């Protein structure tokens, strides 16, 4: 089971001293400008990998075609293999903002480019990761809300529109607003029960709670549970995702928060297997 501690879009919110203090293993940036930039340098830290990601309707296919003829640009989620992420929050208005059908079309086009460039199976492909049905922002009006209120419904429409798409793992997002591990487990198991032919990667895990200490314990408990599940192949802790009044910050005033300390503890307790 691969565990990777990731800071999405961290360059917008942390300075280099804080980034190096956290020392994440992988950088994901949702923005379309540099997500396929294989040469991105994160504060001079060569240990941080970069993960290309399908973005939204403004994606420029030549960006992907222009990648060097090596799978090296791709971040590693699963052990020792380069990976490509389908899309973050495709059903969310302020996320990728794609219908299931639009996302299927983009995914098919982009994964064909990847497979033609590097060979089928060289870069492992993750499905798009819709947000969980209890995500409060999904109820926002208009373009800020979510087209779907249910991950399973989104996936059914997506798979119907993408019958010839290749996938190596299912991906979902889960934002837990009560830091309730049982609710998280049930949502992940629900996806497995409906689409159990592939393993599951939790593309964005966030927790809000009454205190940073509660959030930190949730992160520890989730990691311990995930490592016992053969079908959970990895997860991302969305350390900068502001999920509520406490948020899930890892650093404050130059010091690790309780969540940041848990983050570092897990780095040491569950070291990932990464390629160079």
TrEMBL record:
Pfam families: Glyco_hydro_cc (PF11790)
Highest taxon of the lineage: Eukaryota
Ranges where the Asl1-like glycosyl hydrolase catalytic domain occurs: 29-263
Name recorded for this polypeptide: Putative serine rich protein
Coiled coil: none
Classification via Gene3D superfamilies: Glycosidases
């Amino acid at each position: 089971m691969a565990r990777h501690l990731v800071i999405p879009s961290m360059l917008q919110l942390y300075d280099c001293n804080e980034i190096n203090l956290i020392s994440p293993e992988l950088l994901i940036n949702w923005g379309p400008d540099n997500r396929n930039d294989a040469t991105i340098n994160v504060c001079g830290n060569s240990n941080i990998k970069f993960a290309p990601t399908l973005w939204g309707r403004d994606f420029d296919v030549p960006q992907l075609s222009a990648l060097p003829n090596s799978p090296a640009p791709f971040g590693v989620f699963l052990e020792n293999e380069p990976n490509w992420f389908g899309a973050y929050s495709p059903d969310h208005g302020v996320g990728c903002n794609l219908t299931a059908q639009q996302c299927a079309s983009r995914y098919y086009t982009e994964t064909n480019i990847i497979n033609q460039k590097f060979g089928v199976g060289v870069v492992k492909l993750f499905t798009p990761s819709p947000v969980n049905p209890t995500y409060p922002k999904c109820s926002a009006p208009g373009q800020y809300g979510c087209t779907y209120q249910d991950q399973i419904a989104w996936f059914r429409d997506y798979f119907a529109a993408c019958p010839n798409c290749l996938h190596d793992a299912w991906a979902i997002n889960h934002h837990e607003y009560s830091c309730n591990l049982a609710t998280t487990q049930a949502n992940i198991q629900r996806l497995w029960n409906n689409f159990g032919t592939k393993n599951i990667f939790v593309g964005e895990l966030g927790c809000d709670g009454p205190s940073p200490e509660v959030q930190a314990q949730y992160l520890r408990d989730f990691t311990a549970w995930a490592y016992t599940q053969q079908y959970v192949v990895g997860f991302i802790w969305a350390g900068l995702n502001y999920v509520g009044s406490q948020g899930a910050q890892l650093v404050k005033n130059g010091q690790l928060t309780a969540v940041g300390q848990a983050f570092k503890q897990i780095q040491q307790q569950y070291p990932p297997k990464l390629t160079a």
